[in-house]
């Protein structure tokens, strides 16, 4: 069998009945949609919107968001097909185990851990900064020794600790809190859109696509890999600026794939998972485009504050009080992102533990809560320590490269599984197979090439560490170790 051994769909589904590793099916299509919106709308809409408009595309950043949405939409279709066909916890890890083989599944699982755990840490630090600013507006000052940027970021640590405890209590309870926070976040975003319309000056949209100019030249480890490989010259604005903007704002959409990690907890996964994945992506795209059009209409693109675009835009039109409301929305928005990413990380690790690629003892579920409490606490502890003790800085790009590599492999897995298992009932199918899945993979790889050389080097180090764990621990302890092809056929026949 070797490292390319695969686990059948029937095996994956049968293992969900193991009492020690059984998650409760509580989530509806609405829960999954809210879950997706909760993780997608976060730092992107509060910070990335203005920075991308000011530095890359001007008012045409709205087109960049549409292009990025199309790219993510292709990957989302692939996730929707897999999630409805293989309703098992673990997302891309589980999908690839059934199609591309164990070593590829391990790579994707390891990538997802990088994305989700580091992503939760990064966003928790962002939340800490917004929370400190909001508290300051109410006259509460966080001591400098434990404030954001210090040796120990206390607000970030406390946030992750509280959210971890909530997640350990139960998935439904977590999503009830998530529902309230998402409602607050959506109110703030809609408030920005409708309040900002009154201050839009159509002259600010001209030129809608600013003329192209030479971009800032990067060199060495900070240069994008594609620039180093092909000697390309960076450009800002113009048509290429729209494409560059799309590569930047693509990361504002990261998170819809986390919906697939909860597949095993959906009441009707065949119907609800495609709805949750696609609906959350569509809703967020509409909100992103509307927000960018309002901000670039309120402020000329070359005068946008790239660090606090929304708040600064309202201050520029004489509404500084709105900045407090926006800060409150950012606090609520980033809180839901951190919670959702921690849930995703625990569900991926749970699936790897159940497959014995990681110690099975950490993944057993609590019979009362129906959640892997021990694993949740372990993941939460790591995230809290990284968020509070580590100056993340440029490591944020590590989140992106982990996500994009998973996108590419999941997209390629769709035509592979279609060919290997044409007999499977698929509640949802990607149209245009294999063209659209291959196109999704190509786009993901292209966006990966736009990341810096140092990000690629760190990614390779992370992957080497992952291979070490797999070959020294997971390979020989895997559920599939020692199993023959005949054994696999018998399991499939029994199922």
Point out poorly predicted stretches: 490-495
- Rounded to the nearest angstrom, the distance between the terminal CA atoms is 21 Å
Number of helices: 18
Number of strands: 2
Report on the architecture of this protein:
By secondary structure, the chain is mainly alpha-helical. The chain is 66% helix and 1% strand. α2 (29-40) packs across α8 (171-197), α4 crosses α15 (396-420) and α15 (396-420) packs across α17 (453-477). It starts with 8 loop residues before the first helix and ends with a helix. Mean pLDDT is 81; it is low at 490-495.
List keywords for this structure.
disordered C terminus; 495 residues; two-stranded antiparallel sheet; 2 strands
């Amino acid at each position: 069998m070797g490292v390319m051994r695969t686990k059948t769909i029937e095996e994956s589904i049968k293992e969900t009945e193991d009492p020690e590793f059984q998650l409760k099916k509580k989530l509806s299509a609405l829960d999954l949609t809210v879950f997706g919106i909760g993780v997608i709308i976060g730092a992107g809409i509060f910070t990335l919107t203005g920075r991308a408009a000011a530095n890359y595309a001007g008012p045409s950043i709205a087109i960049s968001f549409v292009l990025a949405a199309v790219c993510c939409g292709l990957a989302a279709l692939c996730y929707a097909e897999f999630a409805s066909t293989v309703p098992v916890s673990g997302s891309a890890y589980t999908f690839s185990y059934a199609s591309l083989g164990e070593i590829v599944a391990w790579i994707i699982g390891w990538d997802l851990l990088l994305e989700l755990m580091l992503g939760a840490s990064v966003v928790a630090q962002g939340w800490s900064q917004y929370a400190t600013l909001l508290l300051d507006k109410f006259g509460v000052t966080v001591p400098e020794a434990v404030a954001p940027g210090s040796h120990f970021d206390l607000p970030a640590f406390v946030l992750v600790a509280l959210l971890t405890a909530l997640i350990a209590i139960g998935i439904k309870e977590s999503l009830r809190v998530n529902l309230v926070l998402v409602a607050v976040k959506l109110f703030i975003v809609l408030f920005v859109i409708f309040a900002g319309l009154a201050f839009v000056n159509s002259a600010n949209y001209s030129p809608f696509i600013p003329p192209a100019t030479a971009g800032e030249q990067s060199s060495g480890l900070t240069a994008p890999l594609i620039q180093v490989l092909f000697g390309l010259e960076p450009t800002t604005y113009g048509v290429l600026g729209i494409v560059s903007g799309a590569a930047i704002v693509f990361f504002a959409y990261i998170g819809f794939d986390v919906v697939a990690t909860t597949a095993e907890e959906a009441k009707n996964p065949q119907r609800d998972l495609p709805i949750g994945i696609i609906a959350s992506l569509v809703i967020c795209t509409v909100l992103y485009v509307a927000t960018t059009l309002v901000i670039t209409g309120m402020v000329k693109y070359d005068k946008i504050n790239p660090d606090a675009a929304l708040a600064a835009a309202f201050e520029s039109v004489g509404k500084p009080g709105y900045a407090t409301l926006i800060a409150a929305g950012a606090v609520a928005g980033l809180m839901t992102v951190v919670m959702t990413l921690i849930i995703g990380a625990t569900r991926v690790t749970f699936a790897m533990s159940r497959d014995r690629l990681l110690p099975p003892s950490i993944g057993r579920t609590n019979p009362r809560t129906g959640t892997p409490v021990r694993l949740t606490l372990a993941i939460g502890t790591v995230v809290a320590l990284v968020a509070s003790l580590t100056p993340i800085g440029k490591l944020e790009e590590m989140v992106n490269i982990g996500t994009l590599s998973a996108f590419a492999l999941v997209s390629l897995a769709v035509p592979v599984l279609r060919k290997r298992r044409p007999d499977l009932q698929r509640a949802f199918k990607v149209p245009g197979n294999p063209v659209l899945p291959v196109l999704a993979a190509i786009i993901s790889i292209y966006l990966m090439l736009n990341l810096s050389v140092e990000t690629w080097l760190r990614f390779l180090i992370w992957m080497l560490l992952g291979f070490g764990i797999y070959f020294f621990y997971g390979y020989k302890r895997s559920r599939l170790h020692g199993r023959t092809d005949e054994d696999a056929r018998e399991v499939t026949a029994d199922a």
